[in-house]
Amino acid sequence: MVDLFDNWIKNDRHQRLFEKAERIAKEAKAQVSRTDPEAVFSHRTLKVIKQEKYPSLTLSAAYGGEDLSLYEFLLLQEKIAEGDGSVALSIGWHLGIMKELKEDKLWRKNDFDRLAKEVAEEQKVVNRAATEPATGSPTRGGVPETKAVRNGDRYIITGRKTFTSMADHLDYYIVSAYVEDLDEIGWFLIDRHHPGLTVDKTWDTLGMRGTESDDLVLDGVEVNLSDLVERKSKEKPAPKGWLLHIPACYLGIATAARNDAIEFAQNFQPNSLDTPIAEVGHIQDKIGEMEWKLLQAHSFMYTVARKWDEEPDQRKQMGAELAAVKLAVTNTAAEVVDLAMRIAGGRGLSKQYPFEKYYRDVRAGLHNPPMDDAVVKMLAKQALSE
Ligand SMILES: Cc1cc2nc3c(=O)[nH]c(=O)nc-3n(C[C@H](O)[C@H](O)[C@H](O)COP(=O)(O)OP(=O)(O)OC[C@H]3O[C@@H](n4cnc5c(N)ncnc54)[C@H](O)[C@@H]3O)c2cc1C
C-alpha cells in the first residue's frame, strides 16, 4: 500500500520531526481501547508527548523550540491523528496557541516569556477555554457570560466553560471573560491549581471522546490584574493559519480509515469469491474515490500552508482561503471515512474494527471552527465584493 505521507515529507528535517509524531501516534493508538470507551485523555500518551518535547516545537529556537512552520505543524498533527484524532486535536490546540502568541505578539513580552520558558523547560501544556453554554461557538461573536469583576488589585472570575479539551491535564487555562470595569472581552492566564477552579466531568460525546473536553468551572477565582494577558482587539482579527491543525486532524483520521479499508479489502475473502474483495470492481471504485479525494484534500491543505509560510505579506488576505481549506478538507475527510465504512460492510459497525470510531470522530470536525455556514457566507461575500 502506498504511504500517503511520503508525498509530503520533503527533507531530513521533516523526516526527523515526523519520527517524533510517529512515536506519539503509536502510543496514542495503543491507548484507544481505553481512552475511547472511558472518554479520557491518557496520562501515558501525554508523558510520551512531553518526552518528545512536542509541546515546545512551535516555539522559536531562542526559546528552545524548533520554530515549526505551518506546513511542518500540519504534517506532524496529521500523523498523530492517524494514530488517534483526539490526541492530535487536543495537543494541536496547545501547539497552535503557542505559535499564534509567538507570531501575532498578542501578549506583553514578559507574560509570553514566562509561559514560553515553562513550556520549553517543563513541557507545560495550555489551552483556551472559550466556549460556553450560552455563547456556543465563540466564533459567532457572543459575549462570554463568564465575568471578571475588579476588586481592588484583584479580579474575581466566575463562570462555566464547556468543551475544554484535555481540561484535567492542562497546566494553564487561557480563559475568556467579560471584564466588567473595562467593558470588553479579555483573556486570563490561570494556573490549574488555582483555588476556585474545578473540572466538571461532563464530556460524554459520540466522537472525539479521548479529548476529554470537560467543563471548566470558575467559582470566584481570584487573580492578579497582571493575569489579564490579552484583550480582544477592536480591529478585525488577523487570519489564523494555525487553525489548520483542525483539518489536518480530520484528514489524519481519514487517512487511517483509508489505510485500514485497503488492508481489509486485501485480506477479506468471502466464500462467494475466489479472490479477496480488493479484486472486485465496486471495491476498487471506492478505493479510487478515496484516493482522489485524499489527493485533492492534501494538495489543497499543504499548498495553502506553504503559501502561508513562504508569503507572509499575503497572510492578511488569506482568511477566506484558510476557511475554505477547513470546510473542504473536513467534509472530504467525512466522505472518505464513509467510503471506508462501505468497503468494510457491516463489520465496519462493529467495535471489533476501527472503522466505527473513525466514523464517530470525523463527524466532530463539523463543530470545530470555522463552521461551514460561516465559511460559505465569507466566500460569497468576498466573491461579491468590488
Ligand atoms: C472535539 C471538540 C473539541 C473542542 N475543544 C474546544 C476547546 O478546547 N476549547 C474551546 O473553547 N472550545 C472547544 N470546542 C468547541 C467548539 O469550538 C464549538 O464552540 C462547539 O463545538 C460548539 O459549536 P456549535 O456550532 O455546535 O455551537 P453553537 O454556536 O451553539 O451552535 C448551535 C447551532 O446554532 C447555530 N448557530 C449558533 N449561533 C449562530 C449564529 N450566530 N448564526 C448562525 N447560526 C448560529 C449553529 O450553526 C448550530 O447549528 C471543541 C469542540 C469539539 C467538537
TrEMBL record:
<dbReference type="Pfam" id="PF02770">
    <property type="entry name" value="Acyl-CoA_dh_M"/>
</dbReference>
<keyword id="KW-0285">Flavoprotein</keyword>
<dbReference type="InterPro" id="IPR036250">
    <property type="entry name" value="AcylCo_DH-like_C"/>
</dbReference>
<dbReference type="InterPro" id="IPR009075">
    <property type="entry name" value="AcylCo_DH/oxidase_C"/>
</dbReference>
<dbReference type="InterPro" id="IPR006091">
    <property type="entry name" value="Acyl-CoA_Oxase/DH_mid-dom"/>
</dbReference>
<dbReference type="Pfam" id="PF02771">
    <property type="entry name" value="Acyl-CoA_dh_N"/>
</dbReference>
<dbReference type="GO" id="GO:0003995">
    <property type="term" value="F:acyl-CoA dehydrogenase activity"/>
</dbReference>
<comment type="similarity">
    <text>Belongs to the acyl-CoA dehydrogenase family.</text>
</comment>
<feature type="domain" description="Acyl-CoA dehydrogenase/oxidase N-terminal">
    <location>
        <begin position="12"/>
        <end position="98"/>
    </location>
</feature>
<dbReference type="GO" id="GO:0050660">
    <property type="term" value="F:flavin adenine dinucleotide binding"/>
</dbReference>
<feature type="domain" description="Acyl-CoA dehydrogenase/oxidase C-terminal">
    <location>
        <begin position="247"/>
        <end position="364"/>
    </location>
</feature>
<feature type="domain" description="Acyl-CoA oxidase/dehydrogenase middle">
    <location>
        <begin position="129"/>
        <end position="221"/>
    </location>
</feature>
<keyword id="KW-0274">FAD</keyword>
<protein>
    <submittedName>
        <fullName>Acyl-CoA dehydrogenase</fullName>
    </submittedName>
</protein>
<dbReference type="InterPro" id="IPR013786">
    <property type="entry name" value="AcylCoA_DH/ox_N"/>
</dbReference>
<dbReference type="InterPro" id="IPR037069">
    <property type="entry name" value="AcylCoA_DH/ox_N_sf"/>
</dbReference>
<dbReference type="InterPro" id="IPR009100">
    <property type="entry name" value="AcylCoA_DH/oxidase_NM_dom_sf"/>
</dbReference>
<dbReference type="InterPro" id="IPR046373">
    <property type="entry name" value="Acyl-CoA_Oxase/DH_mid-dom_sf"/>
</dbReference>
<dbReference type="Pfam" id="PF00441">
    <property type="entry name" value="Acyl-CoA_dh_1"/>
</dbReference>
<keyword id="KW-0560">Oxidoreductase</keyword>
